[in-house]
Amino acid sequence: MESTLVQLFAAILVLHRSAAEPPSCSLVVNPDNLVVKYGDPASANCSSDKVEELMGWETPAGNVGKENVQHVEWSVESLTNWNVDVIMCYYTGLEHQCNISLSIIIYKTPDSVSLELKKHTGPLKEKEEFQLECKVESVAPVQFLTIEWLRGAKLLKTSSYSDFHVEGKENENATVRDTQNFTTSKEDDGVQYRCVAKLDLDPLQPIPEVQSESMTMDVYYAPRSSNPASNVTVVQGASMELPCAADSNPQPERRWTHNGRNLSETNSVLKVASVQFADQGDYECIVSNPVGLAVIRRTVQVVVDYKTIICAVVSAVALLIAIFAIVKCCKHHKENKTGFYDLIAVTRKIKCVA
Fold first, then answer.
1. Domain range summary for the chain, segments of one domain joined by +
2. With 0-12 CB in 10 A as exposed, 13-18 as middle and 19+ as buried, what is 54?
3. pLDDT of the residue at 319
4. Angle at CA of residue 195, ends 189 and 199, nearest 5°
5. Is the pTM of this model over 0.85?
6. Distance (Å, rounded) from C-alpha 213 to C-alpha 260?
7. Geometric angle at alpha carbon 76, from 74 and 79, rounded to 5°
8. What class does CATH assign to 19-107?
9. If you average pLDDT over residues 269-273, what whole number do you get?
10. Rg (Cα) of the chain, in Å, rounded?
11. Residue 290 reports pLDDT greater than 50
12. What 3-state DSSP class applies to 267?
């Protein structure tokens, strides 16, 4: 009797558990999530492993249901309802019901991306801090937006959601502003800055990026000389050129001095056609622009070319010797050509030989 009661209790417990635990949900949604561009068509299919009494979709725009089907499709020709972020597929039977959700992300690429120099007018100066603002207009969703900052081809920084100032609804047509501070260098002059807006949503189908127009930086910096201070030795009478090259922005003015006296020369090269001893001494080229100046110093020494003098003396001596030899030869010849000749003796020698 006792064992019969135990068996009856176990059977009741099994039946209770069976009634309390509904069958597992067999619904499958394809795709399992949707990434749709605002205004594009969208669709999804929901299927079961058997025919269901009632099967359909619940959406913010309304419900769609069919009876005695094994699958049901949801589709729209143009998805423009920003509130459609989750829709649900369901089936309902006599014994139980089941549902599964489909997540939808609606995105919109920016209408425009622009770059602006803030709180500053005119050229920048070297080592000056400046602020750039990247403005991304009409983009969604902001949570998936990143902004890349580039200097030429070099990536300087990548900004994300926590860096942004957002105007409007984050999941609709929002305007995003990202502000960054930089410090100029000489190398920034003529370099182009730009920002690039990216939506990182679907790695299988990358969304086209939108970038700003490039901003070319105009950076003023003091002159830098490529001609170090040096000593120059010049032979008296030779020509001389002293270069005064300097890199600067804006272009510099030049002023030359010789032994502290201002010269009229303002070119980048000081030229002297024939150097004399009065030209030796200390030369300075002062290169200046509104940002600063640089001074290039040179000391010029004028020397005599003794080799040339020695060669001239040797040549002169050789010429005198040659003239003396010619005069002596001429005198000797003149003395000897008027001597006595024995013509009879000469004739006899000729006959003997014959």
1. 19-107, 112-217, 222-303
2. middle
3. 76
4. 165
5. no
6. 51
7. 125
8. mainly beta
9. 95
10. 51
11. yes
12. coil
Amino acid in the structure at residue 38: Y
Q: What is the 3-state secondary structure (H, E, C) of 276-330?
A: CHHHCEEEEEEEEECCEEEEEEEEEEEECCHHHHHHHHHHHHHHHHHHHHHHHHH
Please, how many CA atoms are within 13 Å of residue 195, restricted to the half-sphere of its CB? 25
What's the full length of the chain, in residues?
354
Give the Cα separation of 304 and 316 in Å (integer): 19
**What DSSP line would sit under 50-98, residue for residue?**
EEEEEEEEEETTEEEEEEEEEEEEEEESS---TT-SEEEEEEE-SS-EE
**Is there a contact between 169 and 161 (Cβ–Cβ < 8 Å)?**
no
Tokens standing for residue 318: 């050789």
Cβ density class 199-222: b for 16+ within 10 Å, e for less: bebeeeeebeebbbeebebebbbb
Specify the residue for token string 């502003």.
Answer: 177
| Residue ranges in 174-255 assigned as alpha helix (H) | none
Considering only the C-alpha atoms of the chain, give the largest distance between any 2 of them, rounded to a whole number of Å: 193
Residues 6+ apart with CB under 8 A from 242: 232, 269, 270, 283, 285, 298, 300
Q: Which amino acid is at 97?
A: Q
CATH number of 222-303: 2.60.40.10
Q: Is the bond preceding 22 in cis, omega lying within 30 degrees of 0? A: no
Question: Is beta strand 145-151 parallel, antiparallel or unpaired with respect to 230-235?
Answer: unpaired
DSSP state of 265: -
Same fold, 19-107 and 222-303: yes
At 270 the pLDDT is: 95
pLDDT in tens, 104-163: 999 999 999 999 999 888 899 999 999 999 999 999 999 999 999 999 999 999 999 999
User: What CATH number is given for 112-217 in this structure?
Assistant: 2.60.40.10
**Predicted confidence (pLDDT) at residue 353 exceeds the cutoff of 50:** no
